[in-house]
Hints:
Blueprint: E1 5-10, H1 14-25, E2 30-33, E3 48-49, H2 51-55, H3 61-68, H4 86-96, H5 99-110, E4 121-125, H6 128-139, E5 148-151, H7 153-159, E6 169-173, E7 177-178, H8 181-194, E8 198-200, E9 205-211, E10 214-220, E11 223-232, H9 238-243, E12 252-261, E13 271-273, E14 278-281, E15 287-290, H10 304-317, E16 326-336, E17 343-347, E18 350-357, H11 367-379, H12 396-403
Parallel strand pairs: 1-2, 1-11, 2-8, 4-13, 11-18
Antiparallel strand pairs: 3-7, 4-6, 5-6, 9-10, 10-11, 12-15, 12-16, 13-14, 14-15, 17-18
Helix pairs in contact: 1-8, 1-11, 4-11, 5-8
Bound molecules: flavin-adenine dinucleotide.
Flavin-adenine dinucleotide (FAD) binds near residues 13, 37 and 204.
Amino acid sequence: MNRPSDVVVVGGGVIGCxxxxxxxxxxxxxxxxxxxxxxxxxSASAGGLWPLGESVGLGCGVIFYKAMAGLGTLPDGVxxxxxxxxxxxxxxxxxxxxxxSLAAELRDVGxxxxxxxxxxxxxxxxxxxxxxxxxxxxxxxxxxxGLTEWLTPEELAKAExxxxxxxxxxxxxxxxxxxxxxxxxxxxxxxxxxxGATVVTHTEVTGLRIDSGRVTAVETAAGDFPxxxxxxxxxxxxxxxxxxxxxxxxxxxxxxxxxxxxxxPNVLSACLSTTDCYLAQKQHGEVIIGSTTEEAGYEVGVTPxxxxxxxxxxxxxxxxxxxxxxxxxxxxxxxxxxDELPILGPVEVLAGYLNACGHFRTGILTSPLTGLxxxxxxxGDPLSFPAEPFLLSRFSQVEGAAEA
Length: 404
Ligand SMILES: Cc1cc2nc3c(=O)[nH]c(=O)nc-3n(C[C@H](O)[C@H](O)[C@H](O)COP(=O)(O)OP(=O)(O)OC[C@H]3O[C@@H](n4cnc5c(N)ncnc54)[C@H](O)[C@@H]3O)c2cc1C
């Protein structure tokens, strides 16, 4: 039997690490247990902090293209790109606003710089359809005035000389920035450790012990870990952990494929979104080109068709890329939910259990506020953001089924 903790966090991706950090910062006794599975999302992410772009449906150029091209019905299981509800935009903006101070905080506490960069996001308008899409966003941005800027082709050429001249202009989303996602998770984890959290790696959680309607311990091959609260932060595998407690968690894996170029000199100041793909040059010089949105179960391969389509989209946006080498390609599994919102907080039927899963395309962006909220819930403190829009109970039929 291992030492009891106030909280055991299941899953060591960016969400589990953020929860561990904020809980440890509150003085709680924390154990984080992770078994790295192929396709875990944090290791695959582009690291975009795009609250505006994601909220208005620009996150993944490929699905955007399919919808805008008027294919009518999207292929089975492919969603979006709809505008997400106001509650999500507010949640995402508040989380995004935490990054500048978080960067300094995690550098001080854990000694890791997660490479926060103020880049903004530019939506490139190739044709009239793009202009028609972008204009209302510029005129009536759901975030209010001041965060969007219309760039003429000349202004775009001046701001981003490497971008194609075959454009009608661009819409800039100020405040849509980026980080290095792996370093962010590392920074949370190192900081949590520094504050006393125990990190148990390469260990699978195989069961939850429940006594009198309350979770009392987490079961692993390395023994049981007694706890006051368990947090399900298992990403695309959250349903497995939920089932250990008799809960149906409506999370599914949604594959995203990415192409990464060789290290390049500085060619892009902003992150770019187009109807084909998005592009983000990271601090280390690679340009990340993403991403597909596919229902492929837990299969984590990459496909030649996707690599070709993403590469073509990138060259269309930044012609100079046709002469550079691809360094690596990969895919990861987003924890998708039916309404694209995360699932956070308690469930009525089980005490000592909290969800922190279903972060779909925005888990990097929403990790700080998720971590903070879950830590506040564990400590019984007032919440920094209302949890109602994100509770599992919004899928009332699903929870009803679990209760039955
Ligand atoms: C291609 C791609 C691009 C993306 N780009 C962005 C972006 O630009 N910006 C953004 O904000 N988000 C982006 N995302 C989404 C973001 O990466 C995810 O929302 C986020 O990483 C989810 O984090 P997580 O910790 O919930 O899941 P994960 O990172 O998958 O972590 C879950 C962890 O739990 C572990 N685990 C599962 N079951 C168990 C068990 N039983 N016992 C122990 N451990 C277990 C897993 O192995 C894994 O380590 C992207 C995702 C993909 C795939």
